[in-house]
Amino acid sequence: MIRKQLLASSVFVTFLLTGFYKSDAQSSSPIIVKANEVKANIKPTMYGIFFEDINFAADGGLYAELVKNRSFEFYNPLMGWKEIKENGGSGKLYFVNVGGKSPQNTRYAHISVNAANGSFGLANEGYRGIGVEQGEQYNFSVFARNGGQGNTSITVELVSSKGEKIGSANLSGFNTEWKKYTASFTSSATDEKAHLNILFHGAGLIDVDMISLFPENTFKNRKNGLRADLVQKLADLKPGFLRFPGGCIVEGHELETRYQWKKTVGPVENRTPIVNRWNTEFKHRITSDYFQSFGLGFFEYFQLAEDIGAEPLPILNCGMACQFNTGEVTPVDQLDPYIKDALDLIEFANGPVDSAWGKLRAEMGHPAPFNLKLLGVGNEQWDTQYIERYKEFAKAIKQKYPDVQLISAAGPSPNGPLFDYAWKELKALDADIIDEHYYANPQWFLDNATRYDNYDRKGPKVFAGEYAAQSVATTSPENKNNWRCALAEAAFMTGLERNADVVNMASYAPLFAHVEGWQWTPDLIWFDNLRSYGTPNYYVQKMYSNNKGTVEVPIHLNDSVMAGADSLYAAASIDKTTNELILKLINISGQEQNRNIVVDGVKGLKGNAKLTVLQSNDLDVVNSLDSPTTISPVEKEMTIKNKKFSIPLVPYSFTVLRIKM
Ligand code: AHR
Prior knowledge:
Layout: H1 4-9, H2 12-19, E1 31-34, E2 40-41, E3 49-50, E4 81-86, E5 90-97, E6 107-124, E7 130-132, E8 137-159, E9 165-171, E10 179-186, E11 191-215, H3 228-236, E12 241-244, E13 274-275, E14 291-292, H4 298-307, E15 311-316, H5 336-350, H6 356-363, E16 374-377, H7 383-400, E17 405-409, H8 417-428, E18 433-440, H9 442-447, E19 461-469, H10 483-498, E20 503-508, E21 512-514, E22 525-527, E23 532-534, H11 536-545, E24 551-553, E25 555-557, E26 560-561, E27 568-575, E28 580-587, E29 593-600, E30 607-615, E31 634-640, E32 644-649, E33 653-660
Parallel strand pairs: 1-29, 3-12, 12-15, 15-16, 16-17, 17-18, 18-19, 19-20, 21-22
Antiparallel strand pairs: 1-25, 2-24, 4-6, 5-6, 6-11, 7-11, 8-9, 8-10, 8-11, 13-14, 22-23, 24-27, 25-26, 27-28, 28-33, 29-32, 30-31, 30-33
Helix pairs in contact: 5-6, 10-11
Bound molecules: alpha-L-arabinofuranose.
């Protein structure tokens, strides 16, 4: 990642001078669309989502759990918690580690309560506070037992940032066996930064673990599910696929902390939290309370993909830790457990309910298969060590599941010796789809709109798996999701779509960021504990994904593809299911351009075209929580009476036109 700064910073200055402010005299040539010349089929998977547990994307974000460090398994068991004593109550607590007796969840809190009057307890701060809405129900649960002495009860209190009690519930009758106790209450106020008190009363010993609070209102009202507003933003993209769980999180800082899907399925109390690799990755954005609870694990992931109509695309560790960190590898002759994990994941997703892993899927509530067709082998790996390991995975997976398409890695840069090496080797291995990553400045995206025009049509397909224009430099905390970057991405994406026969899939990265818990910027969707907003980049993705069409047709200016001449970029497609022509037109200049368009190869066009326009005269404009739609698509209608018509392309704009043919 850090090396990508080189890519990002070099041309930024020239970009300001040349890219967007170009004031070439415009030609008056018409734009020609050849609606009867199908160039490529556009796959339903073309535009998708890259999910990675970075920036609090899972815990503190999509996963709606409100209690941080619910099972005391962070390095410091009291992280996120503090002791409280009220009205003369007192007590003591320490943590018991049962080790191998409960290897997945080793610690619990052992509490001695001396609170015949008043209370002794624990307060949880949540993820930068606990966000609650007035009138909404919250569901509390705890694993508890009487510690063998006396009698205690619990009051759960939701406390606002002003210190007012805004919800509460009581629990009592704990016996000496571990049991899950639940209670619900309604919040009487909306607060983005409430906290939760667990108050013990009486006198005696009590043991507690897995202290949890969820909103009742989750996506599809799933018990202890996902945050509804965030999933809705994903669903609105109408994504073709959902890549999960990353990103470098797949690889781990070292192999020990790699992502292991088997540890993320089954009952949540048996999923061992581990440190999140982004916790200490950037010295300028240390997030010491960033762990992975795996409450959003592989079952919830497959279910989410199904809910939003996206093909699942899991990425698995291939025996390599992140090469920007330790770069540890497993010896090739010891890869079997890793390969078995991959084969077992396919069985978990697709296997019959009487297979070992299919049975678990059914027990978790989904007897029907998830229909997994795509699988990534390694994330952003490179060099000989990757190819040697990829070969082993490909051999074993293709032998057992020949129909599963494999995604392989081309490394962290979109060019250079390692990139060329990966392509040469993977081509020789007849790889299915190669994952290219590009984090670069906006000018790179403008310059690379023709990147795929000359790719080998007979070689592996391309997955543009991670990309985002960087306003300052890759990994700079100053990067902004501004219109300049989003417009450059819109221009670049014309080249992805024009080459849909080669580029089968694409996703912006990263996806989510908590405004107080992020490590990496820019990101597609930002949120706090109650609100969220889509960036200009989000709306670019949405306009492409919602208007992709089924076949690509040529769109030319002066007999050439439209990739920068007259500051214009364009792609054209037809949606054969609705019989509509779809034009995507990007004007990166500061002048309005009224362009004539001639559509060849159709009998006629007549009727109301729908125009969706994303535009701002200010290239530095951004959206924010308080101003979430400063830049967002505006829909208009335009009457078209002829195969020849003219269209106003306003300054710095991305326009999508849809018209019945
Ligand atoms: O998207 C952030 C990171 O960038 C990903 O984890 C990694 O794959 C890439 O280097």
